[in-house]
Amino acid sequence: MQVRSSLLKASSMVPGSWGQSNDYCSWERVTCNCNDDDDDAVARVSALDLTSMYVYAPQEKSVVGVPENNNGCSWTLNLTVLSPLRELQMLDLSSSYACLQNLDDFQNLKNMRELHLRSNQLSGSIPASLLELPRLQYLDLSENLFQGHIPLSPSANISSSLWALKLSGNNLSGAFYFFWLRNCKMLEKIDLSGNNGLSIDVEFLGIVPPFQLRSLMLSGCNVDNNVIVGPNFLCTQRHLQMLDLSHNNFTGNIPNWIFANMATLVYLDIADNSLV
To answer: Leucine-rich repeat-containing N-terminal plant-type domain spans which residues (predicted)?
Structure first.
């Protein structure tokens, strides 16, 4: 109901079922976990689908628009309102164009598995607590205003269940070492595109990574030229389907290993480099 209140303050339409009954599990965009064998069990919210939630409802005009405040936001949501939802496993706020406040309070949501925050107005540094959620499988922070380094290190406690990491379209900088992901055995998708200040090192220090990527998107980053020269961990990825290395100022010959070792590849983009 606090989410509903935030939307109403921004002159947005809200789902008609919200607040119409005490059975919140029947409300639109809300999913609950409950024990069918226990009649006394309390149903807990396990998923909230708030995708494209903001819909402007002008009082005097029938034309739907999306006004913005001075910060470029359509509406503001303080994420502390979600803290009591301890069983929350999936939150999707994609394309909400919201100013989301207090992102650090997600550290209390230990059951979070999927966090979709693409296309909002998130700024500042990425909280380290997000990448250390113990059961995290899917993290999408793309198309926001994040700056600074990605809060990972050799000792970072990253979930071994992580299979998708999407941080494209921000203003991230500093260094990112693929070696930091050496314990993510389920990893399938990485997208770091569009972070011009981000320096990417693909070396695995002689270790064969435990994962098999299906999609690797590194367009418009400062990627180490060794990704082209090889050998590197990409030679071990036998299930890769999408590879984007465009806009990286690579030099030298187009590597034969791309075509010789990747029979599964269906999408390759190496445009806007200096390859011959």
So the answer is: 2-33
Tokens of 55: 């819909």
CA 252 – CA 275 distance, rounded (Å): 5
CA dist., res. 218 & res. 227, Å (int): 11
State how far Cα 186 lies from the chain centre: 16
- Of 119, 89, 121, whose CA–CA distance to 106 is shortest? 89
Q: pLDDT by residue (tens digit) across 179-235?
A: 999 999 999 999 999 999 999 998 888 889 999 999 999 999 999 888 887 777 888
Task: CATH number for 45-275: choose from 3.80.10.10, 3.90.850.10, 1.10.287.990, 1.10.530.10.
Answer: 3.80.10.10
Q: Are the C-beta atoms of residues 220 and 197 closer than 8 Å to each other?
A: no
**Cα(269)–Cα(240) distance, integer angstroms:** 13
Coil vs helix vs strand at 273:
coil
Q: Which DSSP string do the residues of 253-269 spell out, in sequence order?
A: PPPTHHHHS-TT--EEE
